[in-house]
Amino acid sequence: MQFSPQDFQRWDETPDEYFYEQPRMVTHIDDAAIAAVTQLYREYFPTNGVILDLMSSWVSHLPDDVAYKYVFGIGMNTAELAANPRLDDYRVQNLNTTPALPFEENSFDGAGICVSIDYLKDPIAVLRELSRCLKPAAPLVITFSNRCFPTKAINIWLQQDMQGRLDLVDTFLTKAGNWTDIQQLDRSPSPATDPLVAVVAYAN
Description:
Structural class: alpha/beta
Number of strands: 7
Helix content: 25-40%
């Protein structure tokens, strides 16, 4: 798949800081879909691991009954991150202007991006950075549904159906390099109000 610059443009190209200035203490998928995200995290993230919650908010979706050594969140709103009880520390960072992550190599045992990958203007650069920050063979779990803020999602995302979006994320990971065993998963609850799909990959 070949991309053009227009693929990564958005309807609203005003600075993201304006859009995320006001905290949104709401969930963007329903309870059944949230439970599906939590189950994925339970399956893939190691107990007592060091976890990165990228593009985080006031909810991390990590299972309440699993202990992690350290959870770090990166998001766009201070109030939302401060309200997240699972974060041991956090940082406000606009990945669309600063895709470089402030961590040493091999810092994390796992990472998650929940219902947010569609907002990245350079997802390949961010995913390349993630592979640098994860330990070898550490999992990345990228989840999404059929909801988004359409004015902030990249054009190519809005042009795809759900399978097309899975393939798109798969392509982002492949082009980023340093990822292996890329898997597409459908974890939609049945019956599903909000579908829930995932792409899982391992740092190489």
